[in-house]
Structures are given as C-alpha cells and as structure tokens.
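Sequence and structure are no longer studied apart. As an example, we show below a sequence and the tokens encoding its fold:
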Amino acid sequence: MPANSDKTKYLPSFISKMERANSPPLVIDTFTYYYKKLVSGATGLISDKDIKPISPDEIEDATRIKEYTESGRKALRHAVIIKLNGGLGTSMGLSKAKSFLKVKNEKTFLEIIVKQAERCRVKLALMNSFSTHEDTIDALSMIKPSDSPLLFIQNKFPKILEEDLAPATWPENPDLEWNPPGHGDIYSAIYTSGVLHSLLNKGIEYAFISNSDNLGATMDESLLGYFCKNRLPFMMEVVPRTPSDVKGGHIARHINGRLILRESAQCPQDEMDAFKDIKRYRFFNTNNIWLNLKVLEALIKKHHTINLPIIKNQKTIDPRDENTPKVFQVETAMGAAISLFEGAAAIRVPTSRFFPVKKCNDLLVIRSDRFVFSKNDHLILNPGIGSRTITIALDPKYYGKIDLFDERFAEGIPSLIDCESLAIEGDVRFEKNVTIKGKVVIKNNGKSQMVIKEGSVIDKDVILN
C-alpha cells in the first residue's frame, strides 16, 4: 500500500496511459472504479455470512421446459450466439487461440462453432482478445462462413505494481504491461465496440454467450423460449457440482435477496472448506449465459458503466518468469453480472451442455468415440456408452502439452466407449484400434517408451517395470 496518504495519487498516470492506448471512456471509468476499490483495501472477498446456499427447488430444471420449444424456434431470428474467443490455451502448450485446435474429426473448435450457427440460422459473434483477433480473421478467411461473424475485441487493463500500486512498466515488452480484464469485460466490450447497437438495430434482442472451448454449449430452442417468454433479463446455466468442480464458481443467494456468483478467488481462505462443500453449495456456473440485450443497454445507459465484483489476481508482470515484479491484475467474471439484474435466474441443465476442453485429459475424451456429432452438427454423448461418466488422468510430463499428446496418439485415439477411468503414468504410445474397457491404469516404470500394440483390448491394469 502506498505510504502517501493520497491512495489514488497514481490514478492520473493510469488514466493517461489508457488514453494513449485509445481506451474508450467507459473502459477508463470502469478501471477507475476498480482501482479505487483496490487502493481502498477492497479484496473482492465474499464471506459465508453474506450468502446462503441455493436449494434445488429454487431453480428450474431444463428437462421440464420442453413446452417452450416452439416459442424458442420463433425467437431464433431475434437471437445471437456469442463465443468468448480470447483464450490462447497456453496451459496446453498452444501459442494461438484455443479455438484453432483440432478437436474432432480434424475440425477445429472454430469450424464446428461456425457450422453450428449456420445450421440453426442464428447470427454468430466472437469476442476476441488483442492476442487472438488478427489470427481469428485469418482463420475465418480459410473457413469461409456463409454469414461472416461479428467480431469485437476484449478491452485491456493496465497491470498494477503490487509494491506501490503504480502503473507497471516493462520496456523490453510493453505488451506485458496490460492484462485482459476477464470475461466479465464482455458487457463493456460489446457496448463500446458498437456491436450491441448493431445487433439491436437488426432486431436481435437475445444473446446466448459461452466459452469457445465448450462444444456442449449450443443454441437450445427450449432454453431460448423459456428465457424470452418469461422476460428474463439474465439467466445462468448451472449443473450440480462434483468433486472435480470444487474450485469452480458456485451460485448462492445474497442476503439482499439476489443471486450471486462466488469464484474461488473471492472466498476467504479460512472458509475454503465450506466453499468446496458440494452438498452445501450445490450448483456450478457453466459460463453459459443468456442475456437480454435491451436490458443490458438500458443498464449501461443508466449507470454509464458495468461494475462487477472485483477479482484481484496476483501475478508477475511476465507470467512466464516468477522473478519479474509482482503485479495485481484487476479482473471480473461474466457470470457475476447475475447480481446486477433484478429478476435474474439460474436454470439447471444436463451435463451434456458442459464439457469444456481445459486440459489434454479433456481433449482425449472429446476426440474419442464417447462423443459423436448429431445430424445438426451438435457434439453429443455417444448413445452407446457404457458409463456416462469417465475419469482421465494423463501423466502431464508426457501428455500435458498438445505436441506431446499428439505424438503419443498419432495413430488414433483408443476406444473409450466402455471405459470408466483411465490413468497413464510414464511414457506410453498407442498404435491404432486400441480399446480400453472398465477401470484401467497403465504404468510405465521403465526408461524407454511403452507401446500399446495395434488392436489391443485392455480391460485390466498394465504395468511395465
């Protein structure tokens, strides 16, 4: 914290820096709001005493709303699909947008998303980051969609030195002085880019927003119908939390009566056990969001900004070098807007609408025969699977990055249709037409690579010493 009694003494420097970078006034005002919060000691933490859990009878179940399908079908011409396309997929060893990754049948996320939008005849929009925008334009020129998606760019915030809360500087790579402000920036970005105005002028009122790496998040006519017929301003799709979701954001009811999203970074450390209790906080945010664009426009015009709960993210200025100066990155979560909209709702959806690819473990499952394309290009669970759930644990040393992963499955992904769990330890390469059944551990304790031969059927543990 600065020793100077004026805790906002560096704010003019931040504002000048953003003005030189041509940041829109609304974005500068938004950053100013968060910076003042930060220097005043705001942590963004949400305590258990301020919220209470949601019970299943408080939210609708999407399996019970089929009567809204026809209404949704009629509303398609007033709807847009917006995909968050700013992620680089660095955790998987990618250097470009994750949506360029080949995910199924030699098709990339982006190719599949474009085809899905074309199939349901709904306008597509992509929110890129300053790291993915130009590459996305190039990729779309190769895909040649019949209706070009609307593109807009996520804003950027200046990084804040942890030592004295001054603007971070890094002359050897000035780009590292900025950070994406999280997907909560979508509300400001769609407004300042002019895309919101353009959509409303075209009669498009309803937006379905989701991550580009979640191919289960498709335009659903019954959900659209339910959303528009009930005149909801905002609706979040949730699924029951599982042990693998304990770190993900959950919904709760604030003491003021509104729904609220709490991320792990917003939970006090001494309350993390309660945060992770999936029987207490039962529902997980899928980041599939339905939004009434007219209501959003009115909210921005009324308040001149969208102020979401702050997330203070501690990093180093060069995230690849822990010896560089420590900084704060101000970020927000898209789902946190649920607390801003009076009458906002959550709806429980099947887990088939939520299978994001965050790691190579997830990619193995999606590329396998456990998933197939439906006739309308939606990726769905294979109706013939033996178990609806599967657990994958690949040795990160040999499978954590996409190039290592592809080398070891170069001849094809094993059949996992009858697999419940697969754990691989050590260096193992697979030849074609391998089948894995039940619960299997494959462990290579040797110094040379193990090869699973063509046509092998593995239904018990395999250990090579």
